[in-house]
Amino acid sequence: MGLYLLGFVSAVGSAWVLKLFMKTKERSYFIMEFPVYRWPRWKNVGLTIVEKVKAFVFQAGKVIVAISVILWVLASYGPGNALEQAEQRARTSATAQRMSEPETESHVASEKLESSYAGQFGHLIEPAIRPLGFDWKIGISLLTSFAAREVFVGTMSTIYSVGQDANELTVQQKLAAEKGPDGQPFFTPARAGSLLVFYVFAMQCMSTLATTYRETKGWAWPLLQLFYMTGLAYVASLLVYQLLK
Predict the structure, then answer these.
(1) Residues 207-212: contacts with CB within 8 Å, 24+ apart?
(2) Per-residue confidence band for 190, with pLDDT thresholds at 50, 70 and 90
(3) How many of the other CB atoms lie within 10 Å of CB of 153?
(4) Buried-most residue among 114, 157, 158, 238 (CB within 10 A)?
């Protein structure tokens, strides 16, 4: 109920803000003609489904694969000998804590990931998104999903799969086992709600920006759309996380 109320207030507030920027010179009327409803032709339904699936696989799919490959490279390599030093620190720490072999390897993979190019960039932006309940891994996924929202899932899968063997936990199991700094489960309902609300209000992806630029013949409205919707998403996500946690 609270999320519905937040959405309603945000929608009314957004309409009021846009009214301040977009001045109308004449009165307009909302007229909509309802279509004639008939039973669909199942052949047409099937063809539409096939065409939509093909469009998603060959358009969004190519973006997802390309970004996943780039992210895997950034998460597998680091500046200088940062990964080797991270592995040495992790093994020394594991020995001191008397970790088992599987726990040691998991600890090593985690330390190497944090020392990689992707990990260092994620830690750079983490202070800005920490109030939302997000960590550096989610931060990287948020940035890559600007290319296409579907990339978020692929990015999280790539990050949590780096350094693991085939006989280790699945990505879903690793997400469920993720612990926060306080030792409690990291992915809580509060963080899940915060992430969902962020994507409800945030701008869709780069294609939305490109479409707005093409329709308005300038960068003023696309940039206003980008900053306003991102700011609205940030504030809404912040409120949801602080209330639910």
Answers:
(1) 207/148
(2) very high
(3) 13
(4) 158
